[in-house]
Amino acid sequence: MKSNIQNKTNLYQATVIFSVLFALVGFSYNVWRMEASEENSNIRTACFEMLLELSSLEQLIYAAHYDHDAKEGNPRIGWVKVGLIADLSVLSNDAVEEKTTALKNSWAMHWEGMTNDRKSVNEIVNSIEGVRSEIKRLLVSLE
């Protein structure tokens, strides 16, 4: 009789230990999954905002070059947009950040010529396309 009680007690203790371990593993996985989901959500949000700013910057360049519209093609607004894109790129990955740095450098070198020089426009627009392509690659790769 004592052995039977001892067996039941051992079985109960093993079940409790297994249940606690199972709960800890499940909780740990849940925390990891929530963190990964939140990080992916932050990256997506930053990428979508960058895409919006990139299209707005491209529109600004075309307004300055083709329409010679000093208001819609204001380079100061362009500087703000390029700065915002660079700030948001920190929330993405290294490849997007590198392309954004290249865009910032291209803008710095060519913004003055965007109203008259087609080559300057092409250089900046190509840099915008580089960032856009890298953002799309990143978005496709997210879990």
Task: Give structural notes.
With 143 residues, this protein is mainly alpha-helical. The protein contains four helices and no strands. It is 84% helix and 0% strand. The radius of gyration is 27 Å and the shape is rod-shaped. It has one domain: Four Helix Bundle (Hemerythrin (Met), subunit A). 21% of the residues are buried.
Topology:
Blueprint (H helix, E strand, L loop, with lengths): L1 H64 L9 H15 L4 H17 L7 H24 L2
Helix pairs in contact: 1-2, 1-4, 2-3, 3-4
End-to-end CA span: 56 Å
Question: Rg from C-alpha positions?
Answer: 27 Å
**CATH architectural label:** Up-down Bundle
The CATH topology comes to Four Helix Bundle (Hemerythrin (Met), subunit A)
| Low-pLDDT windows of residues | none
Shape: rod-shaped
The largest sheet is:
none
Q: Helix- and strand-based class? A: mainly alpha
Secondary-structure element series: HHHH
Counting structural domains, the number is 1
CATH class reads Mainly Alpha
- Percentage of helical residues? over 70%
- Counted by DSSP, the helix tally is 4
In total, how many beta strands? Answer: 0
Strand content: under 5%
Averaging pLDDT over every residue, what do you get?
A: 93
